[in-house]
Sequence to fold (712 residues):
Amino acid sequence: MSQFLRPALSALDPYVPGEQPQDKSYIKLNTNENPYPPAPGVLDAITREAVSQLKLYSDPTIAPLKAAIAQQYGLQPENVFVTNGSDETLGFSFLAYADAEHPVTIPDISYGFYKVFAQLFQVAPTVIPLREDFSLPVEKFCGVDSMVVFANPNAPTAIALPLSEVEKIVASNPDHVVLVDEAYVDFGGESAVSLIDRYPNLLVVRTFSKSRSLAGARIGYAMAQPALIDDLERVRNSFHPYNINRLSMLAGVEAMKDTAYFEDCCQKIIKTRRHTAEALKDMGFTLTESATNFLFAAPNVISGKEYYEKLKDRGVLVRYFGTQRLSPYVRITIGTEEEMAVLLEKTREILKEANP
Amino acid sequence: MSQFLRPALSALDPYVPGEQPQDKSYIKLNTNENPYPPAPGVLDAITREAVSQLKLYSDPTIAPLKAAIAQQYGLQPENVFVTNGSDETLGFSFLAYADAEHPVTIPDISYGFYKVFAQLFQVAPTVIPLREDFSLPVEKFCGVDSMVVFANPNAPTAIALPLSEVEKIVASNPDHVVLVDEAYVDFGGESAVSLIDRYPNLLVVRTFSKSRSLAGARIGYAMAQPALIDDLERVRNSFHPYNINRLSMLAGVEAMKDTAYFEDCCQKIIKTRRHTAEALKDMGFTLTESATNFLFAAPNVISGKEYYEKLKDRGVLVRYFGTQRLSPYVRITIGTEEEMAVLLEKTREILKEANP
Fold:
């Protein structure tokens, strides 16, 4: 840190991405990536000619990608906002709607970046604890007189809120933006997109990183009524209007168009999740009901930390958070059937060692 | 705009990118893109296998690209910061060092985004007018007791400041960051990179969009002492740590490595610039001395606006700004020799029409 950094930022506690150790080859179940490659159309779209055209700027209106997203969800391009990963959508939303005088209400256990954005933009967050069973206490997010941000399904708990409960939160805060982060919704949640035409304060945030197999292309998006999209465009055009590069634009359009491939990948992951969850329950794990592409699982006979470390020793990476309430748990991304078979085999070994 | 947008942002005056009309095919000399494709290694690096790997997140440490940049400039990776276009570097720098209590000093005529960032982050800018001949009044940027941001060479004036003058500004503001935006330096400016080891307050900002033929890949970077880079990393990791996508990472490494191709492209552009500038002078244009990949040129017998419009009618796009002091001028990107021959031919037609 230099002497020049603004004092307000010197206490920043940045987000810590999942580790990417390079010492050997791991089965990577720690960052909620999709185990299946992007849709075949993505591979066909990125030709040598497309790469050669990188000499030219990308389209700052992001028109082709907005059109593809709008068509998929029965919306208009004016309802769609696109960014370099959904973190950027979240960041622009904080910048648009929250500051020292305009606070934000968030759950205590959720995507860690909400607290980081609050710090970065000097927003006082009202942090609402999840219930003992990790469910969201909906009534505490109703009528709160501030912007509300939550993930549905939530992470790392994997739990989904029914749409009727989401609607209660949106309806009870008409004077503030309610941002519903649906990064994982395609794996079993109920989307709030159907509520957009009724609620001018609803902002639904999505990503291509999970269900569209494009984590490395960095594409996030939001859907809302045109006035909210216009707000976010004002921020984007005041930060970097060329935020989507040419190749990600091509990739995103193709990934969004191929509904059959998308649904097939999601169904495979849901099926593998069911098998894996059942097997872990049989081994004595405590699990929440997952509506995501990961499991939130506590081995019980050993700590979350020990389980994480022993899996890592055996070449399987999962995510361990280490805060007090989460310490019995790890977050396990759903990989292929083969990868999860290895996870289960290593887990059996670890439990046997612990309980010989 | 919605009722929810923060009042501070309702007056935002976003940056307006160069137009990209779709009605017909134009010779595009309006956004300072490179007319030559990216280095051959870029085309070879983006394979089907690389595209398939988009299912995985990119490296949040940006290690390969930092290493390639550091090696090119005789620095260490700790001296290098990388972002999604240099606009993001500029934005993060404003966020790190400027706010309502920490102002910034900028030239009145320069890259339009400096004023936009000041608005976005509620920074009061001290705006220093350029001299009558569009040169930078160096003495007015010395000892100003605020962060200083300027472009060298400047845009759209195309004029470069000698390194000794840049050093005066850096040396006279030891308690504040001096950001030198070197987007165009490879076309004839003197870089301040050589000053980095002596000045802890110097931040040199660059882009792959111009001299590296990668405008559509969105890669910007900064070079400075490690403490400044650490500040910017804190902001990046609090905004989006995966800001560089996988394919741009590959493209950037290859573009940075191929010094011979890079120098060849720059030399071709410099040669074409000389021919074009001489021909325009012969036709009575007023031009500044360009150290960039564009010309700042006034036709004199007609207004900048009329010249821009008549060129557009004839299928050649240049950039017209329209503010009072710039109204006699247009900014003309240097394309290929063939493209500039068309520009000159159309210009002759236009002047003949005006002065039959």
